Amino acid sequence: MIKIGIIGDIGSGKSYVAKRFGYPVFNADVEVSKLYKKNRKIFNKLRKKLPKYIYSFPINKNEICEAILENKTNLKKIVDIVHLEIRKKMNLFLKKNINKKIVILDIPLLMENKINKKDDILIFVQSKKADVLKRLKKRKNFNLKLFKRFKKIQLPLEYKRRKSTHIIKNNFTENSVRVGIKNILKKIL
User: Fold this and answer.
1) How far apart, in Å, are the Cα atoms of 93 and each of 45, 105, 180?
2) Using an 8 Å Cβ cutoff, are 128 and 12 in contact?
3) Which regions of 47-175 does DSSP assign to beta strands (E)?
4) Residue 59 is part of which domain span?
5) Domain identity same for 105 and 188
6) pLDDT per residue over 94-144, tens digit each?
7) Does 175 share its domain with 108?
8) Which among 90, 140, 151, 176 would be 20 to 30 A from 79, CA to CA?
9) pTM reported for the whole predicted model
10) Do both 109 and 179 map to the same domain?
11) How many separate helices (H) and strands (E) can be counted in the chain?
């Protein structure tokens, strides 16, 4: 099984690119959303660590955002609790797809949390900063302070770019992504 990790900036189109490969995708953001809605154990752990902020189940994303904005250390507390569970979910996904030729890992903190293995293929999604910000500002819950807080826990983009096996230039047209994916698949298959 070839594991492809999709990395890049927040809002660069990583999930869009991941879906376009046509192989099974593990999307960590979707899994986190499910945890917040359905996992009472995660709620109890978060409530215990952040009682001032987390008080309703299903977990309200606004409570999470407030906790992160209020105190820098809260983000690490949340990540420590949530990523352990996400790693379990990813391992189940990998077991379930063991016979697939390729699987795609769409995990925002893939490198930061040392989830990728040495022989995984890393694809960096490169997008223009101006395009990314324009797209992010269109999101209904976009918060610049939250965005900056998340940027601080990420590795520098240039480092991620250097560590990548391949780069896909995403100018937010279907054609640019399709061509990039086709060229990469030709090289790795």
Assistant:
1) 24, 10, 25
2) no
3) 102-106, 121-126, 166-169
4) 32-96
5) yes
6) 999 999 999 999 998 899 888 888 899 999 999 998 888 888 888 888 888
7) yes
8) 140
9) 0.91
10) yes
11) 9, 5
